[in-house]
Write a structure and sequence with these properties.
The protein contains nine helices and 42 strands. The chain is an alpha/beta fold. The strands form five sheets. It has a 22-stranded parallel beta sheet that branches. A ten-stranded parallel beta sheet has the order 3-5-7-10-13-16-19-23-27-31. Strand 41 and strand 42 form a beta hairpin.
Length: 536
């Protein structure tokens, strides 16, 4: 036994010692480089298409530095995990990311958005959908269609890219602590015995999380802010968490756990395109051996927790509440039926809801179920949020947003008006209290990538920027008239600071953190013009 243990220890040391780390840097790298820290590759897309990944062995890491890494598709089986991750302090961006097939990949800290490249339809991050796959981990990533949806109508919400798609191949995949924002569907799970935990799905127009296969675990996720109703033309029945058969109409779904998820239909009553959202709806069975426990749901719909054609399932310690007391809909706990199988052997205990519809199971074990109150909901939501934050952190680093509470999007994308003479976002940002900071860039420019990484992401500067309205403007999108109106030159990266009333206060090309901080403080402290008298 001692010899075996010693041999295992020596082999572990050998594996750790032989693991290599490769670096990819869009600002300073070159395609012909060896991928070392001193001589990094350029972009991950270039590395994948060139065949350079053949030199990456099981146990190795690929660290990505800030900048745009393109559209990336990887594949391959590894005996030890290969890690593709953000380098320390960096925020690498990709327009699309996929691991089509493979084993033991770990993906961490990437920012993936369709807005970074040419428009396309469908999902933005996909894995295990092209062939045999096992143990793929995706964690700490930020996936969004675009940050600024202020100009979106119902059509744009329904046509938005979806977030993360876990394909049907393999087992043991893990989605952990990702932030999915402004999408059609949030996360879809299609592989057996896989886990989806600690994620945030916020601002979506279809379903938050879709569960389809045996043995899946969905826990500690926050799902919030549903958009676009049937009246807006969206026929999808929106669910926070929905379960249905992978092969619709055949077989069963077994041994699924839906545990301690926090669901909020809407956080802002000023939200455009409001919609109702079903809580946890598992409608297509038979469902066998499900556990639904400890979830806290705040929605204006009948379906708080609904399991249809359930056998030997447990529903316990859930809270289903609505803050929209003027609406007629009140969430329930239900054992429903679509007549696809016998309903039997279920246990429903310790839940809070407005009603309990359990009559389809004549032998149900039901006890300690009570009518929900605002006090119970407030207490249990606070406890659950504290539990989730303790396990996964108060924010997801790649996104920087809280798990609950509206996101503060610092940089809004400025686009010209239809006549090209003004920038819509600038005009709408002008108000008596906050200066406007314009950041002028060119897509793919190395100097701009470096400026964003080294200057605009500085924590001290961001404290000042949070007191301003911040707008990014692609110089190539602007007409001569718009450039003239705002005093925009030809060089990037550049900053222009406008006083709250729109008058230019300061501008510079590639300013330092110190310079920017000083000028923002100065414009905030500058005298405000006297109010103009109203016309009679």
């Amino acid at each position: 036994m001692r010899t075996c243990l010693l041999l295992g220890f020596v082999l572990a040391l050998a594996t750790a010692a032989s693991a290599a780390t490769f670096y990819v840097d869009p600002a300073n790298g070159k395609a012909a480089n060896p991928g070392t820290k001193a001589a990094p590759w350029r972009t991950l897309e270039e590395v994948a298409s060139s065949g350079a990944l053949r030199g990456v062995k099981p146990g190795d890491s690929i660290l990505l530095r800030s900048g745009l890494h393109g559209r990336v598709v990887l594949s391959g089986d590894n005996s030890e995990f290969v890690t593709v991750a953000a380098d320390e302090g960096c925020k690498p961006k990709l327009s699309y990311f996929e691991i089509s097939q493979g084993s033991k990949w770990r993906v961490r800290g990437l920012t993936i958005s369709a807005s970074f490249g040419e428009p396309y339809e469908g999902v933005m991050l996909k894995f295990a959908d092209g062939g045999a796959s096992n143990e793929i981990i995706v964690e700490d990533c930020f996936v969004f269609s675009t940050l600024d949806t202020s100009k979106w109508g119902a059509k744009e919400w329904m046509a938005a890219n979806s977030g993360i798609f876990m394909g049907r191949y393999g087992k043991g995949h893990l989605l952990r602590n990702n932030y999915v924002l402004n999408t059609r569907f949030g996360i879809s799970l299609c592989a057996e015995e896989s886990t989806c935990e600690g994620n945030v799905i916020s601002h979506f127009s279809a379903d938050g999380i879709r569960v389809t296969r045996d043995g899946q675990v969905v826990q500690h996720n926050v799902i919030r802010n549903i958009y676009v109703s049937d009246e807006d033309g969206d026929k999808n029945h929106d669910d926070a968490i929905q379960c249905f058969l992978f092969n619709v109409g055949t077989g069963t779904v077994r041994n699924v756990t839906i545990r301690e998820n926090l669901i909020v239909m809407r956080e802002n009553e000023e939200q455009k395109f409001k919609a109702t959202m079903q809580g946890i709806g598992c409608f297509d069975g038979p469902l066998i051996g499900f556990t639904v426990e400890g979830n806290v749901i705040n929605t204006s719909h009948w379906h708080g927790v609904s399991l249809y054609d359930a056998q030997n399932c447990t529903i316990k310690n859930n809270v289903a509440y609505t803050q929209w007391q003027t609406e007629k809909l009140r969430p329930w706990v239900q054992l429903g039926s679509k007549d696809t199988g016998e309903i039997k052997g279920n246990t429903v205990t310790g839940n809070y809801a407005y009603t309990f519809d359990l009559k389809n199971d004549k032998g149900v074990v039901a006890k300690d179920n009570n009518v929900v109150t605002e006090e119970i909901h407030t207490k249990r939501q606070a406890e659950l949020l504290a539990l989730i934050e303790k396990k996964y952190g108060k924010t997801i680093p790649a996104a920087g947003f809280k798990r609950l509470g509206l996101e503060h999007v610092r940089w809004i994308e400025g686009v010209p008006s239809t006549d090209g003479k003004v920038i819509d976002a600038v005009e709408s940002a002008l108000n008596p209290d906050r200066p406007v900071v314009l950041y002028l860039y060119k897509e793919g420019d190395k100097a701009c990538d470096r400026f964003e990484r080294e200057t605009l992401e500085d924590a001290t500067l961001n404290e000042q920027l949070d007191e301003c309205n911040c707008i990014r403007i692609n110089l190539d999108d602007l007409s001569r008239d718009a450039k003239k109106k705002y005093g925009i030159g030809t060089k990037t990266p550049a900053i222009i600071i406008l006083k709250p009333e729109g008058e230019q206060f300061w501008d510079a090309t590639s300013p330092t953190v110190k310079q920017l901080t000083k000028q923002i403080q100065a414009v905030r402290e500058s005298p405000k013009p006297p109010p103009q008298p109203r016309g009679g």
